[in-house]
């Protein structure tokens, strides 16, 4: 069934590729600035470059009319390729790029209208929310452009990982087949083991200390506890003057840790599973959060460079800057917990009114961390930060219990954003939106009232 439907998508890709190959001008690529968008841009970069087609890439964090008008104004290309964005803005594209060729490779819900080539799983009854990423769709185009482009498949999976298109650690639908294919081709290595976040990039101690899912009492957020646990098992934590990562351990040592965890009564089932290693040596989740950081730091071009040039000094540099930025925003929040202009507490929730103290790109990340750490571990958190002169970006987060009780953040954000002349949506536990800045106060009041009423 899925194969049948995906054949139609592949046929669309074939047609697009045919037209692209016979095009002799320059292409304007427009990509979303998140991990999936950067992965899509890497694929677009290579598919064009390898075919000798000149191009320029623009990154956008959203594609509303204003943003689109601005890029159209500064560009004179006759062919536009939108990746991981564009499907929801067909009408604007039809109007503003009436005389140009428009190609879209995206997986977001399509709006009404048509462009020259629209590659989107939804058009063929495939769920773009979990089955395939924007990078996956862009890969379908690359694959039909040239046989040699098959190495780009790994970026399709990096994009899917960035968009969290997994359930219980398993890729679904087309992502699953793409992953099988990537493993068969040797582009991704699959192994079994402790799938703690930070497996390749963090010390063993940190990997354990930062494990929150599942929460490991006595180890999570408890460095001495983590050190003691590992020392009791007899694991050498250092090697050649540096800290060892989980990935540096021998299979025997890893098994001993698993035994140690079982003996202590921890739920190891959740900690064991498939680990996917990219051929650049990074574990796929860590690489996708690196690309995510590039986007959030407004350095998506550096993400492309890291992918194509394996520039890992640059990668470390971005991760460090990103870590510092998060640290400083968290300090701001901690310093202002008692200031009711910044943190408005209610029932078992809180609103973070950050204004311009937290960048709107980062308010979602900060709200998530605040909720998951001991800074503001409330059932419902909403963060607001100024986006531009006129708008406020909003991120809402709810714990699983809240969602299970029927209070869904996507529904709430859709409803309230609309009520205050904005737009919003997302997932049950994590949703976002944008409203006019002058409606901020009213929005917060309505948010608090609605949550209090419904929970
Ligand atoms: O930006 P934030 O991390 O809060 O977004 C959470 C989720 O809400 C994301 O999946 C995002 O795509 C979605 N969202 C949305 N509409 C918006 C803002 C965010 O659907 N205007
Ligand atoms: Zn995406």
Pick out its properties.
455 residues; alpha/beta; inorganic pyrophosphatase (n-terminal core); Diaminopimelate Epimerase, Chain A, domain 1; 3 domains; six-stranded mixed β-sheet; five-stranded parallel β-sheet; 17 helices; 17 strands; globular; binds cytidine-5'-monophosphate; binds zinc ion
CATH architecture assignment name of the largest domain: Alpha-Beta Complex
Radius of gyration: 23 Å
End-to-end Cα distance, whole Å, is 40 Å
Q: So what's the CATH class of the largest domain?
A: Alpha Beta
Which molecules are bound in this entry?
cytidine-5'-monophosphate, zinc ion
Which structural class do the helices and strands define? Answer: alpha/beta
Largest sheet: 6 strands, mixed
* Uncertain stretches of 5 or more adjacent residues: none
What sort of overall outline do the alpha carbons produce when their principal axes are compared? globular
Percent in helix:
40-55%
List the strand order in the largest sheet.
Answer: 12-13-14-15-17-16
What's the count of strands?
Answer: 17
**Overall pLDDT confidence:** 94
Summarize, please.
The chain is α/β, with parallel strands linked by helices. The chain has three domains: 2-184, Alpha-Beta Complex (inorganic pyrophosphatase (n-terminal core)); 202-328, no CATH class; 337-454, Diaminopimelate Epimerase, Chain A, domain 1 (Roll).
